[in-house]
Every structure is written in C-alpha cells, then in structure tokens.
Specification:
Elements: H1 24-31, H2 35-48, H3 58-73, H4 79-89, H5 92-99, H6 107-120, H7 122-135, E1 145-149, E2 153-155, E3 158-166, E4 175-181, E5 188-193, H8 209-219, E6 222-229, E7 237-245, E8 251-262, H9 267-288
Parallel strand pairs: 2-8
Antiparallel strand pairs: 1-3, 3-6, 4-5, 4-7, 7-8
Helix pairs in contact: 3-4, 3-6, 6-7, 7-8
Length: 289
C-alpha cells in the first residue's frame, strides 16, 4: 500500500490506545498514525471544529465522514450520497476542502488511512459485518448483544481482541464486560462500561437501510479494543472467555474464543523446524541406545 504523504505510517504500530473506541473509526485511525501525522491530525481537528454544523463535536462529525468513506470503499454508497451526508455535518467550504487534492487531509488521504487500518486490524471489520448481519435478523430490539473477534494466531504470544457489547434497549444503566484469559497476562479483566449515549447524530439516521443499520449498531454499542498477551510460546491453543453482565451482575451472554501461539516464523516454517527437532531427538536417542 502506497503512503505518499505519510511514508512513516507503515512503520508505526499502535502501542497506546483507549480500551473503549469512541468514536470508533476516529480512534482506530488516530491510533495507527505515526507521531508526525498524528500531530498534523490534531491541528486539522482544531480547524474542523470551526466548520462543524449543528453544535456537534468535531470528532463526531469526522466519525460520520469516515463512516461514509468506508461505505464508498465497500461500494455501498456513491460519491454523491457521501457528499450529501458530509454536508450535513460540515459546512460547504470544509467539504470542498476534503474534495481538494491540494489539502493534506482530503477524502483520498482519509480513505488511505482507513485502508491501512483494515489491513492491520481486519478483526474489527469482521466483527462489525457479523453484528450488522445479525442485527437485521433480530426479532426484538430488546436483545442484549455480544460478539468478539480474536485472530486465529497470536504472533509472539500477542494479539488484539475486539469486543462489541450492547445492552437491551430498555437498559439505561452501566454494565460490565469480564474477560478471562487462560494463562494470559492478566488472567482476568473486569471492564465497567457506562450507559450507552443514545443521542442521534446528524447524517446517520437517513439514507439507505444498510447505512442506517451500520450507524445504529455502532452507536448503540460499546466497542472495546484490548491488547492480549500470553506467557508461553509454541503452537498450543489458548482460550479467551468474554462475559457480558447486566447492571445487577447477572451474566447475560458469554462467548469463548481460541487462538494458537505462533513464534513469528509462520506456521509452516515453525512446523518444519519442530519436526526436524523431533527427528533429531529420535536419532539422538537411537545413537545413545
């Protein structure tokens, strides 16, 4: 992936990020920016704050812009519809600057940032896709929702866990996520989540059914990004249990995920190396005998 304006982006790995990703795409993009680009991003956000409509915060307006860009990336929205949505959260001069090739932060560059995040953290987008598909099949909006994504392999014993949790529609109280990691560090995490902010944001409740569903799922949920670590290497499987608890500490939903430890050489190379070690051990034992 080419990074013409941001050559350092591909070399940067997120090390510090909020557990609760809110606003979701804004937090994901910002966490993946290199220090130089993140400094420019902060300046740009201050400028955007002067061009936001309807008394919104700049991060919520930019979140709507990023979501519309993601929809054009996935061919679920045309450029005209994207422009219409963006004009609902930003004034016209700001939208025109996003369309300009002379601006550092424009539609094209923001799309490259999102593509970078998709490449680095595909799990969050798998999670969103599954949740949106399931939401369309739910008979009742009262149901609590829990879904999580953990990559099938954890390189060097490290990985990223993404969790999407949503309380029942009638719940306006805090709730809790418990994460139990077998032989992990730490083994148990308890995350207390605030009530869902059910404020309807401009530009998100109009348009196609897919667009409205996408926004509804994200805005009525908490999305967690949690760095995982295990204290053993090798190809042994590890399990992670995620529990969703109501305000009265009752377990509403639970999910167990599995991953395999990988030392970074890739499964094939590591398997060959392990097989050679076993053959060498057998030969050595035969010679000793």
């Amino acid at each position: 992936m080419e990074m013409g304006k941001t050559p350092l982006l591909r070399l940067h790995n997120p090390s510090l990020f909020d557990t609760i990703a809110d606003p979701l795409l804004v937090d994901l993009v910002y966490a993946h920016l290199d220090p130089e680009t993140s400094s420019k991003w902060n300046d740009w956000m201050e400028t955007i704050s002067l061009n936001v409509r309807r008394n919104q915060k700049s991060e919520h307006a930019v979140e709507t812009v990023l979501r519309s860009i993601y929809f054009t990336m996935t061919d679920k929205m045309d450029l005209g519809e994207r422009r219409r949505i963006c004009t609902q959260v930003l004034n016209m001069p700001a939208v025109e600057r996003l369309e300009s090739q002379d601006e550092f932060f424009n539609f094209e560059e923001l799309e490259s940032f999102l593509l970078h995040v998709v490449e680095r953290k595909p799990g969050i987008f798998r999670l969103l896709s599954r949740t949106i598909q399931r939401a369309g099949r739910l008979r009742s909006s009262e149901d609590w929702t829990l879904d999580a994504d953990l990559p099938p392999r954890a390189t060097h014993g490290e990985s990223d866990l993404f969790v999407l949790a949503s309380p029942g529609k009638s719940s306006a109280a805090p709730f809790e996520i418990d994460i139990i990691t077998v032989e992990g560090e730490p083994e148990t995490q308890v995350i207390r989540l605030p009530p869902i902010d059910r404020v309807e944001r401009p530009g998100r409740a109009e348009g196609s059914e897919d667009w409205q569903m996408f926004n509804s799922v994200i805005d009525r949920s908490h999305v967690l990004w949690i760095g995982m670590a295990w204290n053993k290497s090798g190809h042994e499987g590890r399990s992670v249990q995620v529990n969703l608890l109501s305000e009265n500490s009752r377990t509403v939903k639970s999910q167990v995920l599995w991953t395999i430890m990988e030392d970074g050489d890739g499964l094939l190379v590591s398997t060959v190396r392990r097989s050679l070690k076993e053959v060498y051990s057998m030969i050595t034992r035969s010679i000793i005998r």
